[in-house]
Specification:
Elements: E1 2-7, H1 11-23, E2 26-32, E3 41-45, E4 48-51, E5 66-69, H2 74-87, E6 96-97, E7 102-103, E8 108-109, E9 114-115, E10 120-121, E11 126-127, E12 132-133, E13 138-139, E14 144-145, E15 150-151, E16 156-157, E17 162-163, E18 168-169, E19 174-175, E20 180-181, E21 186-187, E22 192-193, E23 201-204, E24 209-213
Parallel strand pairs: 1-2, 1-5, 6-9, 7-10, 8-11, 9-12, 10-13, 11-14, 13-16, 14-17, 15-18, 16-19, 17-20, 18-21, 19-22, 21-23
Antiparallel strand pairs: 3-4, 23-24
């Protein structure tokens, strides 16, 4: 079994823990969180305590260990990845694909990405590196999610949707087929997006309209 650590120790990291346990092919060593005390108990499973192993700077003490970033925010996942890369450039990330998801064999999923339970990804879609496809997301055929992008629970996309790097689609939103969402762009929850969205922007509503710019 591969040894694996989870970066982050919040609620989403615990969801990732549950998905890893169900796969039955990893040994979870613990969590790595800069902002939690070392040896803090993050959770207990089957009478075993899973602790915070320390901060990212202590990463070099871990040998032959893989990792996954268990943080919901696209921008924070990117920041944590960059911090890890400074300490350990050759660190290996695993993709965690829930056993309770439905993924077409033609789908390509990058390193460090997470597919949560009950999600469906249809034919010829591409999920980049360190993406988060959250609970019960439905991604239709020929979608493209760039690195560090993600969805909230219950998101639905039509065919040939494109989502830019660092962008995030909020809970329960629907994206019409052929729509392109730019980089670093956020779609507010329960929105219906029927037109292309610009970079560095916040969109919200039915139909979604640009609310304001977002700093890079």
């Amino acid at each position: 079994m591969k040894k694996i650590v989870i970066f982050g120790s919040g609620c989403h990291a615990k969801v990732v823990f549950s998905e890893i346990i169900k796969l039955k092919k990893y040994k979870i060593i613990g969590f790595v969180d800069n902002f939690a005390p070392k040896k803090k108990i993050i959770l207990k499973y089957k009478n075993k305590n899973y602790l915070n192993l320390g901060n990212i700077k202590q990463l070099k003490n871990l040998k032959k260990v893989y990792g996954i970033i268990g943080v919901g925010s696209s921008t924070l996942r990117n920041k944590i990845y960059e911090e890890i890369n400074v300490v350990y450039k050759d660190f290996k990330f695993e993709s965690i694909i829930s056993k309770d998801s439905i993924i077409d064999p033609s789908v390509k999923i990058g390193n460090g990405s997470i597919i949560i339970s009950n999600s469906v990804i249809n034919r010829d879609s591409i999920i980049g590196n360190h993406c988060l496809i959250n609970t019960s997301t439905s991604i239709d055929h020929d979608n493209y999610f760039d690195d560090f992008s993600g969805t909230g629970p219950g998101v639905v996309t039509g065919g040939k949707v494109s989502v830019g790097k660092l962008s995030y689609i909020g809970i329960g939103s629907t994206i019409k087929n052929m729509v392109k969402i730019g980089k670093n762009t956020f779609i507010g929850g329960s929105s219906f997006v029927n037109k292309n969205c610009k970079n560095d922007s916040l969109y919200f509503g039915i139909p979604a309209k640009k609310i304001r710019n977002i700093k890079k």
